[in-house]
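User: Continuing from earlier, I have the next pair ready.

Assistant: Great, send them over.

User: Here they are, in order.

Assistant: Folding the first of the pair now:
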Amino acid sequence: MAIITFGCSNTYGQGLPDVDDWLLPNSKPSEYAWPAMLGKFMKRKVLNLSKCGSSNKTIWREVTDYPFEKKDVAIILWTFFHRTSIIRKDRDNTLRILPGYTFEKNKFPDRDLKRLNKNYYKHFFDDFNLSMESWLAINHTKYYLDSKGIQNFHFTFELPRLDKPTEPVFFPDSVPEWNAVDLEVVPFIRDFGSDNEHPGVKAHTKFSLDIANRLRGRISQ
């Protein structure tokens, strides 16, 4: 049995000491990120399948494509609702669409991807549309995992910023009446990695303790 975690850069550990460049083909999730810390606290095998720049649609695909074994446990840290993606049959060609990729200072996207992101947020962005997209992904993920008999737990986060107040992933008034998922919000403390944007080692450690406390007595042996 293993705990399988899914999420975005805040699960991968972007900005932590052992992640120099997550774009490199051999890059691996950080050993300082909360999933690795969670494994140590709970004395369980944890597999971190998160990907930087993921939207909730991308996370949904990663979960539903994964070959779970009978006693595995899925823990999903859902990300910002204002992101989306264009998923393709070849998962390596998935297009990430997120506000950060419109910034000129962002060095990660290539020119075409940056242009796509700018056009999307200028001409097609609608917060209600993306909210429904995320809630659909979250609810179908739970339905899918429940149908497979896989224990699953759903969290999201609040993230402090250097230059702005804490940024929530979603707003409470966006929750549809049909939502059937208890999406637990766990905040990251104000501690930053080397990029001064993503959570640092202390933030990930505290986050993993909070997750472990919330899971205590809930995971089947």
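And the other member of the pair:
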Amino acid sequence: MFATALVTGATGLLGRRVVHHLKQHARSVRIGARDLSRVAGFPRMGFDVAFYDHDLPASWEGALAQVDRLLLMPPPVDPFVDQRLIPLVERAVQLGVRRVVLVSHIDAPHEPALTALEHAVVRHSPEWSILRPTWLVDTVLPGGFLHPGVVSGQLVAPTGEGRLPWVVADDVAQAATHLLTHPSCTARVVQATGAQGLSFRALSATLAQLRGAPVAHVDIDPEVFGARLLGPRWPVPRVQLLLQRLERIRLGEAEVVSNGLTQLLGREPTSVFDRLRLG
């Protein structure tokens, strides 16, 4: 058992699952958060909490103090993730972090910013692992960013009949925990996918069956879809990156099935249908 692990992105859909798995393996789990009101309940559950902001280097020192392992979960769909987080990785190692596990994305080899961040983790960390999950099926369930569309009966995405091997968030959380805690899990790149591809249309049909209410995939024009997103939280570069990922699905390039989870966890990935059925 090691001393302290710092987890960034711990208030998100994936992060909350990670910290609860991780608590069984570390003497101390520190939650790094920009908005401390969102983690007010964590100390009562035995977690340490520290103010941490990707964009405020002054916050890094305190968050990383006496930390020997770092689970780095970047903001999703960030076209500038390399500029924001490579300095953090470098500073973390300077302050004594030995193991860095980066939760990247399945499309990282096609995205220069994520590729650069992955290379920095490999280059600077004494012990490193890269976890590349595909899209989380939990995003269509309560709390996920696609769930409001499911409730309204429309899953809007410019993906045509393209399929991707959706993965269950808890499987990814277990994989991240294993990479951070298992002594032999270093210098590994793990693709975290489900066992088979499923299109947005097929996923919508499954949701409709389980909900007993209509859910239809709306294959919207990409430009219209992007225009709907534009705003303070979705500036142009971020929208463009998301559209690139969606276009890879449409072209059939995202249906990359890997046995990475099976090799790491010693079991088959959780069935997407079973996860949707449980809600």
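Worth noting for the second one:
The domain at 2-134+169-193+256-269 is CATH 3.40.50.720 (Rossmann fold). The CA atoms of residues 4 and 67 lie 5 Å apart.
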